[in-house]
Amino acid sequence: MSLDGKVAIVTGAGRGLGLAYAQELARRGASVVVNDVDAEATADAVAALESSGGRAVAVVAPVGPTETAKELVSTAVEHFGRLDILVTNAGFLRDTVLWKMSDDDFDTVINVHLRGTFTTVREAVQHMRQAGEGGRIICVGSPTGQRGNFGQTNYAAAKAGIVGMVRTWALELKRAGITANAVVPVAATAMTATVPYFAAAVRAEANGEPMPAFFRHDLGFGTADDVAGLVAFLGSDAAASVTGQVIGVGGDRLQIWTHPEAALTAHRDGGWTYDALVDAWPTTFAGAAQSVGERFPKLPEEFEPPTS
After folding, report:
1. Catalytic residue numbers, as ranges
2. How high is the pLDDT of residue 190?
3. Which one of 105, 128, 167, 172 has the largest count of C-beta atoms within 10 Å of its C-beta?
């Protein structure tokens, strides 16, 4: 099933995962609006898509402001006549522990990831609803937004918020035939290149070598191209019934994340007072307490980063 005749916007598409998404969408027949803040990277991305036979146009602007969202949608319509697919991928990191995180560290990450997703999706669905032909909203989450990660208060908040919005949009947009899903990629990117745990996998990709099976299969960690197929699928007519889902993908693994559900329910006549909780917590509730943070298997010895 091709994407011939479809038109897509991909934010943060100058390099990395966003570029891989744009390339796969174009390969499947979609015309693509390529967005990034880096003018040179954006121009290179458009040239790469066109040299492979695709149709593409650039919008160099930061996501977050409503003006950028309007420019992205108007560019799609003016150049290609319609808008069918939006992939909100743009983002970056400003990692530090809570007590050292500045207002600017927090606000900047929230503005790009969370507000940028909100404003761009809002503008896109206004057009899609008016056009009356449905559409596909594909937002990018993160394992950090699902489970938390040390030093990433701002990023965790943004990515968890994106998933919450996607679940809400799936309800609000159903009647209009517009799906909304979140993709949780696990791949070698600039964001993972500095993590020692992934060093052997990142090094293999950089050298053009096959990524070790431990990373691809056991860990579900792969290349940007491993994620792109899911993005193209969610943008296609084949995924018309898929909405409100959070789907993790990396290497050889694909996962559908559960939506939060109560792990334990208990009732007490008169309610749960302080004294009742002191008595009952160790025996009734403690066993259902949930873990936090990502859980990685032990690295095989051959992939252990060298110690200094």
Report:
1. 142, 155, 159
2. 77
3. 128
